[in-house]
Amino acid sequence: MTVLPIRLFGDPVLRTPAEPVVDFDKELRQLVTDLTDTLRQQQGSGLAAPQLGVGVRAFVFDVDDVEGHVINPVLDFPDEDEQDGPEGCLSIPGVYVDTRRRMNVVARGFNQHGDPVQLIGSGLMARCVQHETDHLDGVLFLDRLDAGRRKQAMREIRQADWYDPDAPPTVKLSPHPGGQPNPLGLGG
User: Fold this and answer.
1) Per DSSP, what are the bridge partners of residue 175?
2) Contact call for residues 6 and 44 (beta carbons, < 8 A)
C-alpha cells in the first residue's frame, strides 16, 4: 500500500492543465494504485493525479460503493439538469461550499490497460466525475462558485490550520461561461 501526500491549494500543479496519457504501462498502473490507496486512506470520493503532483489526465473514484478510474476522460452531459449542494476537496481540507454542477454526466476514456471505458453517473457520482475532470484542467471547485460563495470559501481557507499566510493561494474565475459546467462537455 502506497499512500502519498496530497498537494494543497496554492501548489502550482493544481492550476496546471494535465497532459494526456500516451503510455499505458507499468508506471501508469502504479499511479492508479497510488491514487487508489491514497484515496482510501483519506476516505474521499475522488482523487486526480495532479493532487499527487503528477500532471497526467487520470483520476480514481469511490462513490456509493462503486470504485474505479478513468484515464483521459472526456465528458458529455445528456441533459441540462443541475444540482446545487456541498462540495469539498482533499486539496482544500475542511472546506465545504455549495457548488452548482450538472446532475448527469457520461465520462468516456480508458482504463489503466488502454481499454475504452464509459462511466454514466448522476447525483454524487456526476459531481465527483466533474470535480476530478476539472482537476485535470487546472480548475478547482472554488472557480465554479459565485462571488459570495467564493468569499465564504476563502474566509474558511484563511482560518484553516494548513493555510500559509506567507504564500496565499489565488482563486481564478472559471474558464467556462458564468462559472457553470462547460455546456460542450469538454473537460468538465
Assistant:
1) none
2) no
d(CA 62, CA 80): 25
Q: Which residue has the cell 460563495?
A: 149
Cα separation, 126 vs 146, whole angstroms: 20
Tell me, what's the pLDDT at 169? 61
Residues with a catalytic annotation lie at 132
Q: Report the pLDDT value the prediction gives residue 181, as an integer from 0 to 100.
A: 36
Using alpha carbons only, give the angle 143, 11, 61 rounded to the nearest 5 degrees. Answer: 65
Q: Give binding residues for Fe cation as ranges.
A: 89, 131, 135
Q: Tens of pLDDT along 74-98?
A: 999 999 999 999 999 999 999 999 9
Q: Which CATH number fits domain 12-165: 3.10.360.10, 3.30.2350.10, 3.90.45.10, 3.30.420.10?
A: 3.90.45.10
112, 64, 91: which is closest to 157 by C-alpha?
91
**Contact present, 117 and 110 (Cβ < 8 Å):** yes
Annotated binding site: 89, 131, 135
